[in-house]
Amino acid sequence: MKYLAICEDDLLFQFMRKLATKRSEVLFIVEDLDAARRIRRRGGSSQAGPLDSETTYQKAHLERADQVILFVRDTELWERVYTQIRSLRPDTSILSLASGKKSIGGHKDKLLSQLPLEDIFEEFCAPQLLDTVNRRRVEMIRGLFREKDKINILLQHDPDPDAIGSALALRELLGRNRATTPIVTFGEVTRPENLAMIRLLEIQIERVNPADLHGDGAKLALVDVQPPYFEQPLGRVDLVVDHHPKRAPFTARFADLRTDYGATSTIFTDYLRAAGMEPSQRLATALLYGIKTDTLFLERGSHMIDVEAFSFLYPFANRALIAKMERPALPREDLEALGRALSRLQLEDGVAVIHMGEVKREDVIPQMAEFSLQIEGVEWGIVSGLSDNRVVISARNVGYVKSAGDIMKRLYDDIGSAGGHRAMAKAVIPVARFKEKFGEVSEKAIRDAIVPLITQREDENGRG
Asked: Distance (Å, rounded) from C-alpha 206 to C-alpha 153?
């Protein structure tokens, strides 16, 4: 088909460039000679002339066009151009591109139709703009590091699949290996499914001290975590990529925080796609598992972009390995801790509050919080325990519009570390500071503090 695109400048050409440069199927008629030259320099076909002149369309051979595309923002000029086209070609189809608020209803013309610009942006421009932004960010990230630099990728104390997958993706994006870009943590991986992940995917995570971060002039990158999470200063931070809300001000040479994303692995999938990189099976498996775990299989706190990233990764990933990661062997002592916790379950206004006492492994606490949501009538699971002279509290809820992160931050951030998302959050507080504020570490102290805030937020959401 042959198209005649009538427009005031070369903006429409930018949107249609792929089609417009294919066998010269689109001829652009523009008023400005410089705009016509820009189109030709970029491989398009163009002609300059007054848009309301019969001579212009005679030179453009309007009679050969199968369809006219009309992109004229000036209303009076649009009317003159439409009238001219109709006088020369009463039988040609005209597609008018305009704001959805603009009407062409004054013309009873069955061959005249309108496509709202909002639809074009939603289907074409928005994804293209996002790709452009991501390509620029990939360039900036790569520009932070020299070939000879060692880069430490620092994760949270007990790294989860989202953090681990994101770290692998950053290494791949930079074209690095384990020797030059190790994945490090101040803690260790403890949850059984996460241990299964690093074993099955052969991922090495090194335990380091803060003093080791900048040894030999090493650069520092943080993924799925931000500098304020750590109690000790980190020195110069070169890169931060995270999907969690910003906890406190921090300084980094480059930061990309996307709190509307359900997983940091989604951000790195964006980067890989923008860079035109096809993930290996190992990397795709890690990223897919990271998205799946952080969003509870796209049911909690997820965004459409998470769904798109999941769909992109799925064909490359090893689903059999993911199944093995999700069902690791559970040590006997963990089963016993879960059993004791269930015997203490207290349910009030849909809120299950459990204090597990001393636990050998901190990861049992969020496991119990997740499990409690499966109990009939439970909308919030609040589980606490004592680990390494700290009170660890994990909060989960069943709805996206709830406010777990805000509540935990309000209650505990002044005496420890607290925060998270609407549907999941965590607080870690030294036992001594917890007792200073609440008197004792007990199920009652936690329930008395947190249940009224949850009830208040639920009431506010109900009124909204």
From this structure: 10
E strand or H helix that includes residue 412: helix 404-412
- Given a contact cutoff of 8 angstroms between Cβ atoms, the answer to whether 189 and 207 are in contact is no
- Which pLDDT value is given to residue 463? 47
For residue 106, give the DSSP letter.
Answer: T
Is the CATH code 3.30.200.20 the one for domain 3-116? Answer: no
Query: 1.10.150.910, 3.40.50.12780, 3.90.1150.10, 3.10.310.30: which CATH number matches 332-463?
Result: 3.10.310.30
Q: DSSP code of 180?
A: T
Q: Which CATH number fits domain 144-326: 3.90.1640.10, 3.30.420.40, 1.10.579.10, 3.40.630.10?
A: 3.90.1640.10
Res. 349: pLDDT tops 60: yes
> Across residues 33-62, what is the average pLDDT?
89
Confidence band, pLDDT 50/70/90 cuts, at residue 395 = very high
Which residues in 272-423 belong to E strands, given as ranges? 346-348, 351-358, 380-387, 390-397, 417-420
Question: What is the rounded distance in angstroms from the CA atom of residue 154 to the CA atom of residue 325?
Answer: 23
CA distance 417 to 427: 6
Q: How far is CA 283 from CA 141, 162, 167, 234, in A?
A: 19, 12, 10, 28
pLDDT digits (tens, 9 = 90+) for 397-431: 887 557 888 899 999 999 998 887 778 888 999 99
How far is Cα 201 from Cα 190, in angstroms, rounded to an integer? 16
- Residue 449 tokens, joined: 């503090």
Proportion of the chain above pLDDT 90, given as a percent: 49
Query: Which secondary structure element, helix H or strand E, spans residue 55, and what is its range?
Result: helix 54-59
Is residue 185 within a helix (H) or strand (E), and if so which, with residue range?
strand 183-185
Across 340-379, the runs of DSSP E, i.e. the strands, are: 346-348, 351-358
Write the pLDDT tens digit of every residue in 105-125: 567 788 888 877 666 655 555
CA distance linking residue 227 with residue 246, whole number of Å: 10
For the chain, domain boundaries: 3-116, 144-326, 332-463
Residue recorded with tokens 């925060």: 419
Crossing angle of helices 431-438/443-463, nearest 10°?
A: 70
